[in-house]
Amino acid sequence: MSKKPFLVSVLLWVCASGAYAINVGVLTTEIQDTEFFVVKEIKNQESVAKFVTTKVIEVDNPKSLAPVLGGAPDVLVSPATLLVGPKKSASVKIYYNGAKDDRERYYQLIFVEQSMSKATDLTAKASIEAKQKISIATILVARPRVLDFKYEVDGKGAIKNVGNSFMQTVAIGQCAGDTADGLTPCASEEFILPGERVDFSKKFKVFDGYGIWHGLKYEFIAGGE
Questions:
Q1: In the predicted model, what is the mean pLDDT of residues 70-98?
Q2: What's the pTM value of the predicted model, to 2 decimals?
Q3: What sign for the dihedral angle of Cα 216, 65, 103, 142?
Q4: CATH of 28-118+131-142, one of 2.60.130.10, 2.60.40.10, 2.30.30.40, 3.40.50.720
């Protein structure tokens, strides 16, 4: 199973027809507890060059997205602005130097694109003609440096995150279907923040178990355990 994002918010301001967003890869980026930076590749799939600026906003959590006062002093993007040629790719590094504590931190990574006219001449005297502006907001999660990954399950479909870092959980089972026994395989996915509890039992006729991601690690817990 592939990992999916908390959220993707795409805002488009289009001044020319036929505009498409740049490709920034996965929409939920994680900095693990032992990492100090990650690399984001930006792909320009169009036939005109693009300036891309990366902005960072700290938020209280990736569901409410309420900004945290004071900005994001622990995160540095290099380069903050880059030029990506037609049909080319470029990379930015996102450095994290947060406190070595037990708190998980969340950020919006916002990639703002400005397209250039095909006729633009990149000389010292040339002016840049912005034809369109596209903003893509994604999520950055910085795992706690003092990581405590724990959860509680009841074997019937409920799971609670009692640790200090988010969990991606996929529950699988049988739902009502047009088969001989009236059942069909189905799944339900949730991102569970610290302190949250999710009860999957009401979503299934038969509950088979949970799949849980912790960073790049995966484990499966069968129903009844």
A1: 94
A2: 0.81
A3: positive
A4: 2.60.40.10
